[in-house]
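Service request form, structural biology core

Requester: graduate student, group of Dr. S.
Request type: structure prediction, single chain
Budget code: on file
Notes: please return the result as structure tokens.

Sequence provided:
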Amino acid sequence: MTDELDLDALAEQLADFAPPEKKTGRSAREERIIAGFEEIQRFVDEHGHAPRHGEERDIFERLYATRLDRLRAQEDCRAILAPLDRQGLLGPSAIAVMDDPANLDTDALLAELEGALGTPEITELRHVRTAEEKRAAEEIANRERCADFATFRPRFEQLQRDLDSGARITQPIRKDAGFLKTDIRTGEFFILGGQIAHVAEVGDTFKAPNGESDARLRVIYSNGTESNLLLRSLQRALYKDETSRRISEPSAGPLFVREEPSPFSSEPQEDDLASGTIYVLRSKSEHPLVAANREVLHKIGVTGGDVQKRIANAKLDATFLLADVEVVATYTLYNINRTKLENLIHRVFEPARLNIEIKDRFGNPVTPREWFLVPRFVIDDVVDRIKDGTISNYFYDVSHASLVETRPTNPKQT
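Core staff response, request fulfilled:
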């Protein structure tokens, strides 16, 4: 007698050989929405509550809170995420009262949200990282909240006071300007991604797989977070950020970062920061007043960029008297506040300032303020006096076309 056929058991055995059931395909945008929501869910699992707004909150919690607000507000997002909402984050009862949007870090939030909810390329694959993304991950290096930020806060506050007073200056970071790994040292401050980054610690040097030396850093950020990225990763991030800047050491006085070497030294030391250039120009204008005084009429300014680029469109710029100019002299600056220096030079030559009004390209009257009736040798004298720190003892005498000393630079005791 044959055994009775058990159809249920047979079906169960055959199921093991059945082709897998095809899952409904998702668009790239849906994949990103789900991935962003899963990050929020992990936050809730870890902290026991939904992310909240507020200045006192961690920046990442605030980012998650804003992302969640956007997901709740979009009906298509709620429809995609409803089957996955095991924590009830999308329901009306879970929606907290939002803070005033003015309290949010708008730029950071928008950038984050564009990454979370933006439309990626159709060829982008979930869970497949490009080489660029891997490098970015290393540069971020799992940034997290700085537990002892209270010990660093006074440093950031003092730094801001130094910047406000001009005791410190910021300098753009350019790869072609010779910014090296050795410029990243313990105690240095940089501006990266809109945040001030403080190199709190530099670990032991080791050889990277490519044979170059590297080190692990502890970097504290002004928003209360920190990371332990590699030295070369910080260097690469500073290069990639077009707005990154290095912050100088504090100055001993209101103008110079330090007394030695001088800010005009032809042989700057290793730690010096190139701050810009004083330029002295002569106009080629045929304006009668300009032509009559051409040899002693000079425009004196300070720029942080290339002088030739600065004067490239001089004939279209009323501040250049709507005429081409020639460069008479330049002086490279080191460790100096450009704005304070320019104001000082203009104050010294104020009695010789040219009083002229011209019409710009649109017929509007313009009074250029950086042209002075002063001989070239006097400009050299002023630079020398700034260089040795004695400029406060001199004034420009228009009648004699020379600097006049107001008091001895080293008065003798009587």
